[in-house]
């Protein structure tokens, strides 16, 4: 049985869409209700039985590392009060997970960030969560669903996809492919385009921030050329593997909020507040 035991979080970006607050606060620490985005991502990894957390970070993201450490002073100040329960989930993550960090010296695209994380991953398949994409589920989490699919296709990379309006395809990596068997949610990918125009997009099936990648991706990324912006795109590396039939796209069950944008961040807070408060 193919088991995923490590999850990589590329969290070194500047978060420029949230300036000026991201001058001092990592965008991954922005809260949905009272919990930061990065914690939602770690809890999703835990839901899939993954407790080895690898973070590709930068010298400006010390708050993330501090967050996943005990804080005896705060814990003592709320001990025995109603506020003590607010720390249960984060303390559970701190106790159960092993957190490791590596710095990405320059932000050169998602592919470069993932390649930077190789020393923390080693030679095994692994998950990737982009905490900008907040995924909410009543049942199994998106990553849990993908790990189950990985057991059926252990030699393939898997990307999570959802349908987006055609006029928004230029914000995403877009896939094309054929449905596998009798499934209406699993595709064998034969084409991928990074942020195509609506006229050039083969479909409206957009890759969102959940991946399961085989160790082979590191070999491919080492040979992947930077684009005209000087960035190494994970989409380009995956396209290399797709040509050999080694990439699957999965239309997941659940709701996704694009919290990397102010609009999506506000929507997530508004909707979840109505449902939970």
Structural write-up:
Strand 9 (173-179) and strand 10 (186-194) form a beta hairpin. The protein is 31% helix and 25% strand. The relative contact order is 0.17. The chain has helices at 37-47, 62-67, 72-78, 88-96, 110-116, 118-121, 142-152, 216-223, 234-242, 262-276; strands at residues 6-10, 31-32, 35-36, 52-57, 98-103, 126-129, 133-136, 157-163, 173-179, 186-194, 205-213, 247-251, 255-258. A nine-stranded mixed β-sheet has the order 5-4-1-6-11-8-12-10-9, with helices on both faces. Helix 5 (110-116) packs across helix 8 and helix 5 crosses helix 9 (234-242). The chain has a single domain (6-276), classed as Spore Coat Polysaccharide Biosynthesis Protein SpsA, Chain A, CATH 3.90.550.10.
Write the layout of secondary structure elements.
Elements: E1 6-10, E2 31-32, E3 35-36, H1 37-47, E4 52-57, H2 62-67, H3 72-78, H4 88-96, E5 98-103, H5 110-116, H6 118-121, E6 126-129, E7 133-136, H7 142-152, E8 157-163, E9 173-179, E10 186-194, E11 205-213, H8 216-223, H9 234-242, E12 247-251, E13 255-258, H10 262-276
Parallel strand pairs: 1-4, 1-6, 4-5, 8-12
Antiparallel strand pairs: 2-3, 6-11, 7-13, 8-11, 9-10, 10-12
Helix pairs in contact: 5-8, 5-9
Kindly state the mean pLDDT as a whole number?
Answer: 94
Name of the top-level CATH class:
Alpha Beta
Number of helices: 10
> C-alpha Rg, in Å?
18 Å
CATH superfamily: Spore Coat Polysaccharide Biosynthesis Protein SpsA, Chain A
Instruction: Output the helix-strand order.
Output: EEEHEHHHEHHEEHEEEEHHEEH
Largest sheet, spatial ordering of strands: 5-4-1-6-11-8-12-10-9
Inertia-based shape: globular
Class by alpha and beta content: alpha/beta
- Give the termini distance in whole angstroms: 41 Å
Main sheet attributes: strand count, strand direction, barrel closure: 9 strands, mixed
* Low-pLDDT runs: none
Number of E strands: 13
Number of domains: 1
